[in-house]
Amino acid sequence: MTKLDSKIPQGPIADKWTNHKNNIKLVNPANKRLIDVIVVGTGLAGGSAAATLAELGYNVKAFCYQDSPRRAHSIAAQGGINAAKNYQGDGDSTYRLFYDTVKGGDYRSREANVYRLAEVSANIIDQCVAQGVPFARDYGGLLDNRSFGGVQVSRTFYAKGQTGQQLLLGCYSAMSRQIGKGKIKMYNRHEMLDLVIVNGKARGIIARNLVTGEVERHSAHAVVIASGGYGNVFFLSTNAMGSNVSAGWKVHKKGAFFANPCYTQIHPTCIPQHGDQQSKLTLMSESLRNDGRIWVPKKKEDAEAVRAGKLDPTNIAEEDRDYYLERRYPSFGNLVPRDVASRAAKERCDAGYGVGTNETGEAVYLDFSSAIMRYGQEEANVKGYHNASQTQIRELGEKVVEKKYGNLFQMYEKITADNPYKTPMKIYPAVHYTMGGVWVDYNLMTTIPGCYAIGEANFSDHGANRLGASALMQGLADGYFVLPYTIGDYLADDIRTGEISTDLPEFDEAEKAVKDRIDFFMNNKGSKSVDYFHKRLGKVMWNKVGMARNAQGLNEAIAEIKQIREEFWKDVKVPGSAEGINQELEKAGRVADFLELGELFARDALEREESCGGHFREEHSTEEGEAMRDDANYTYVSAWEYKGEPSDAVVHKEPLVYENIELKTRSYK
User: Fold this and answer.
1) Residue pair 189/65 in contact by the 8 Å Cβ criterion
2) Distance in angstroms (rounded) separating the CA atoms of residues 431 and 626
3) Domain annotation covers residue 159
4) What single DSSP character describes residue 289?
5) How many separate domains does the chain show?
6) Quick check: is 575 in a domain?
7) What's the predicted TM-score (pTM) here?
8) Cα-based torsion angle of the residue sequence 302, 303, 306, 311 in order, rounded to the nearest 10 degrees
9) Residues belonging to the active site
10) What is the CATH number for 331?
């Protein structure tokens, strides 16, 4: 049986990464060109890894199901990227970023990985500036920073509200250079459908050309999974509709452990759901919480009048507004971590103070009126308008806010038809990011030799809750500054291996399994669409495995997901042909994987009898509704081994040892 070996280096935490790099094996430049590496996914993690590995001399085969790496879901990230550069002189440091990340993850992340992330974060900014990423700058021309939830410093670098897009374009430019040189062979519109293992090592993948329908074999000396997270198991999420778990789930079924599947992030600032036919949710950047104040009416009758359309929020007096985050968490206010802000919004709405249009009133206000007037007064002072009217001050303030958040405000108005400069935004929590993922060691290798997982596809850096602006940081840290070192330690033994043949029986077997599954979907005489089953799964996940969980609901969810899965295999209908473009066929394979993951997800949540971060068990909470961890029994990573049915999966426990940070109850008050 596979044993967990995290391969964490010995020594002081500040020296671990440096000493590790000094002692791992290397591949010399002349030998790198003899080695092939497959990278699945070309978002920030996969794209940066592919570009860097190719720059080092490896032959890279990069795969994405989009028509271009520029369409990866990383492009949707809005608010910024963290780095411990202390440009603001407000007390930030590598240790502070490390501490905030571990605390933000509710003490359920691996210390060594998080410290390394904080350590290399500063290098990322220099790399991206060199690529031409247009980060925001202050009046003196220096890079600007803003704050995000869960911290008391400003360490988030940003490019207006489109940071992910700008970072991805920088990453793509680095990839394009290597594509032009022939060091990266780019396979657009290809989807990985299985991992090929030869003599116990990952040696290739089976992929489907999504344009022609052809099933292809691709070999390499190592395979890197950089395919993102699995938030779409809930159907409605902030993820792109194409985001899926399949690449990670395929390697799991071939022997890679899947860690902490129940750790899912609910983001507090999303545009509320508006109907049953909606296919995804839209995120409003957490950066808006820098200047927006979150509130609901203090009086239930005011909330009811708002929901009925009889009362405009701008007519609710200041003394009749409950700025509940500022009230409950005075030290952090509106910048508490995402899990805390999300649960607080749910509590207010469940109590009858929500302002949404649906029966439950699922929405709260994110109000910029105070910031607009504050900025407007500052601008009036700067311009010498000492007797400026309130109207003039508001106009000046709106221009300042537009410079900072203009594209986000524009997006909100296009979707909701409300002008957020004049009336408060409505927001509500939604599924966003997944902290769980494929288990990896310190080198980012899974339990399958030669198979790596990076970025959101792995579990390693965020614990039970991710701080805002840390996703981009982890993706680029893994791709630019960690994997290119650690993969050489493994590949140093492959310099005499030669090209891996795709004529091996292991490729025959994997290709046959893929084709058999495609044939099943095309020939099954069912009556229900793929989306029918995906939506049913999503409702079970949201209602019983969502923001709040309890033993009864989780047991019901496990039984219901199992039932949905049985019905899916009997009654799913996939129209069209396997030869050519068929998005229903693509979705069928992905939803089949979600139906297995969903059950394991619920089982993991059931077995973790504590509340931590985004995993909130109602049985384990304080009288004030805060999470109660059980450090004596659950300070470990749950790493699940595939054994067939999700109910047969075996859990392995990696103990989490804290030598540099004291375990204590999180408080943001």
Assistant:
1) yes
2) 20
3) no
4) G
5) 1
6) no
7) 0.97
8) 10
9) 338
10) 3.90.700.10
